[in-house]
Amino acid sequence: MAALDVGGTSIKAALYDADLKDLASLREPTARGADGEALADQVARIVETLGKQAGTGTPDAVGVVIPGIVDDVERVARFSANLDFRNVPFGELLDSRLGLPFAFGHDVRAGGLAEFRVGAGKGCTDAAFIPVGTGIAAALQLDGKLYAAGGQGGEIGHIDVGHELPCGCGATGCLEAISSASAIARRYREHTGRPAEGAEQVVDAARHGDEAAISVLDDALEGLGHGIKTLVTLLAPEVVVLGGGLFTAGDYVLEPVRAWLAANLQFQRMPELRIARLGDEAGRLGAALLALDRLGVRG
Predict the structure, then answer these.
(1) pLDDT grade, residue 135 (50/70/90)?
(2) Which run of H or E residues covers position 14?
(3) In angstroms, how far is CA 71 from the centroid of its own chain?
(4) pLDDT given at position 152
(5) Taking 80 as the threshold, does the pLDDT of residue 299 lie above it?
(6) Is residue 253 within 8 Å of 139, Cβ to Cβ?
(7) Contact 123/73 with Cβ under 8 angstroms?
(8) pLDDT digits (tens, 9 = 90+) for 13-29
């Protein structure tokens, strides 16, 4: 099956067999257009190209995942700032081009599906997957099933964690505005005037004793503690899987979050914190699993 993880700047695509073995892969810039037509054309072309690369011909099914507010039941992209989509019936657009069974979903929920089924959350019934990237959202698995709420579920990045910074959503105090990878880099630049393209650079600076980096990182990790506390108070996941570039630093960033939770949870169940295993392949693997489910084959 073909699996495509569509981002605001690029598409990561692969052709997998039923055992999730990668048969062919490619990456290319994302086609733009508010009506979704150009992107739908690009998806159809990529699916054909993958089949030719692998020498397998037309795949059995296709999985496509995108960012934003995605109603995967109605197959509509309700809102995606990264793609400039508002209420785009992307499922219909793909229907007219693919002529194949396909699944359409949300990138973070798909990444969570992969982590829950074949990654760090394997074997869990109640779990959350929180990738810390340009933004912050959570994939939620409750009683063994993904929870979507019409595409509105899991927007943990917009929990108010008690600061006064503005968020792109229009509110202040949002977790995303202090703890996302982009926020960490931005705040470090504002504090120092020095360049930082991502959270990894700030983490590296903190490890080398940079006081501004340490302060920015402390704020971000405390914010994550607040956000996870709200999550565990409401849903009590047994495991929280943390991913994104920030958590490639492993225990250096994981342990402060664990310590904050241990000091600040009262009656709530302390979740087991785990580092995501699948990296930036999680979205593609999740799209492939959605396609397998569409065929009635459980990966």
Answers:
(1) confident
(2) strand 10-16
(3) 16
(4) 87
(5) no
(6) no
(7) no
(8) 999 998 999 999 999 99
- DSSP state at residue 279: G
Q: How far is CA 145 from the centre of its chain?
A: 17
Would the pLDDT of 69 be above 70? yes
If you ran DSSP here, which 8-state letter would residue 1 be given? -
The DSSP call for residue 136 is: B
| Buried/exposed 172-188: b ≥16 CB within 10 Å, e otherwise | ebbbbbbbbbbbbbbbb
Cross-strand pairs, 239: 127, 272
75 pLDDT exceeds 70? yes
DSSP secondary structure of 138-173: -EEEETTEEE-TTTTTT-GGGSB-S---B-TTS-BS
Q: Distance between CA 62 and CA 79 in Å, rounded?
A: 22
Positive or negative torsion for Cα 275, 117, 80, 150:
negative
The pLDDT of 162-167, averaged and rounded, is 94
Instruction: Report the C-alpha gap between 210 and 206 in whole angstroms.
Output: 5
Report d(CA 113, CA 127) in Å as an integer. Answer: 10
For β-strands 62-66 and 10-16, DSSP reports them as unpaired
Q: Hey, what are 282's tokens? A: 């999680």
Half-sphere exposure of 277 (CA within 13 A, CB side): 12
Torsion of CA 176, 178, 184, 188, to 10 degrees: 150
What does the pLDDT average to over 204-225? 97
